[in-house]
């Protein structure tokens, strides 16, 4: 049975820390609450002020459920009972224990988020001259899957999947059954290794969410929460999983990150869009132009494939270089998430309802009337200035189409101008499936 939350969140009585804990709980359970930008901003403050806080050093999957906090935030008794007693595994506990050691071989850490071009430039200078792997940071739920091969076998067989493999030794949520409906059941490879570990991001294609909601009377809103619901809960039919993707962004094969992607594709997996790249320091102004161009192009690739994204992952391509930068903290060196340009906090997307123009004595100006968007600052935006016809043509703006704009605090909403260039890639994901 697919559970639908009965209460409505009211955080007016919560402290800042309580809101943060609630945001982690909601993220884990696919409940709409904080935006990524709001969470990232608060988390960055926590890192600076309380670097050793347990919620900075651990995953949201390791958090406890706090019934008193949920009640204070507007959850009903039925909601609290459900979330406090939810089934955390869909196969026996002994099976979780059986594969725990193998899963810990692939323990993953968080990625350091960089939110200003100055921060990105400092990181890029430290990586200058070395081959990098740049990939799309998919806005999904983290999935780790294990394939094993015995000595007498000729292929690796899917065995186990979880949302994460934490250094604490826990296997938080066993999602083996549902992930088996998405990933390959087995594969053959000449590489002599017993365990193959897959690290990926799961989401539901956006154009299928209305179909899923209508079918199950749910209220899923975004690809990440829809994907989270479909891999963590029971009640969905096998045919529903054609609308769910798991894009690989890590595998324990290959000398380099990009080689790992190539191997994953040959084995039948879908990967995040990626490319190799070498940064040369030509000064800050040149860097800004270069990196924002990459951001626009990579995001457009994801958008065209129906992939919601929230950043660009930049890492050293050579895995031996990455190993040298491993630390005992929650974050390793050599891996960053650039959240600038169209991924900066304060970037919004809406649908154009109508394009209007204003004829003046010496010029014509254009505006887009959009579906209202409520910003993080509480302001509702309904109109975007398009300036002139060239802007409309260059960005392929039309009624019924999408428009991306930037808005922060009291400033005027600004159109995010798109690039017409294409983006050379080594690999990528499938197109979104139609409903």
Architecture overview:
This protein has helices at residues 16-29, 36-49, 54-57, 67-72, 77-84, 93-104, 117-127, 176-179, 209-216, 223-232, 257-266, 284-304, 319-324, 389-394; strands at residues 110-114, 131-138, 141-148, 156-162, 186-187, 195-204, 244-251, 274-278, 309-316, 331-338, 347-359, 364-374, 380-385, 402-406, 414-415. The chain is α+β, with helices and mostly antiparallel strands. A hairpin with a 7-residue loop joins strand 14 (402-406) and strand 15. The chain is globular and about 85 Å long.
Percent strand equals: 15-25%
Q: CATH homologous superfamily of the largest domain - what is it?
A: DNA ligase/mRNA capping enzyme
- For the biggest β-sheet, the strand order reads 1-10-9-2-8
Distance between the termini: 23 Å
What general form does the structure show? globular
Structural class: alpha+beta
The CATH class of the largest domain is identified as: Alpha Beta
Total E-strand runs: 15
Count of structural domains:
3
**Helix-strand sequence:** HHHHHHEHEEEHEEHHEHEHEHEEEEHEE
CATH architectural category of the largest domain: 2-Layer Sandwich
What percent of residues adopt helix (DSSP H or I)?
25-40%
What is the average per-residue confidence, as pLDDT, rounded to a whole number? 80
Please give the largest β-sheet: 5 strands, mixed
Unreliably modeled segments: 86-92, 165-171, 419-435
CATH topology of the largest domain: D-amino Acid Aminotransferase, Chain A, domain 1
Evaluate the radius of gyration. Answer: 22 Å
H/I helix tally: 14
